[in-house]
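Entry for the shared binder. Reason: the reviewer on the internal report wants the predicted structure included alongside the sequence.
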Amino acid sequence: MRFDAVPKPPAVADRPRDERGYPVPAITPWEDGRPQFALTDHDRSAACARERLCSVCNTLMPRGPVWRVVGGAEAVAIGEALAAGRPYRNMAPTTEGPGHRACMLYAAMVCPYLARSNARRRVSAVQGGTPDDLTAHVVRGAARGDAGAVVGFDEYEFAITPTKVLFRFLDPVEWLPHDDADQQLPNLVQELERIAQR
């Protein structure tokens, strides 16, 4: 599905766009008037973490679950744990911040890397250094993996270092799997209808 055919959450529709029309996430840095989609702006990400703002639309996330898009082995492990009624807690931090359910469903569908299992990163998210344990998966050529999911978590924790903003997600409460993220369209439409009825 073309990105411009995917229904937008209202706050995403209000975001600045690049020359192709892609809405630019809140944590994306700009360079020479152009968004750098594969990178994360430290200060913007830190502000989102501290103020409980969605990393996609930059608006407040109410108390309660937060969502993120996961891929590969992590998506599979979360799904297996929830299906078996077992707790799941990945203690490894990530640099990817949380968002609203609608925003993460939208991001899963329009981000080429998140949307398809055969997608590979076109650019590296590491600037001026070598990848470490937290950034090894975000280098040029890295594959998303066979599975993907939009996952709701009961809560998140964060730490802000001089060079990174780190997140840890606790206690999954919802698992919406996909191989191709177009499969998330019914979930996104349903969520947008729920938002419109508020």
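Summary line for the report: The chain is about 25% helix and 20% strand.
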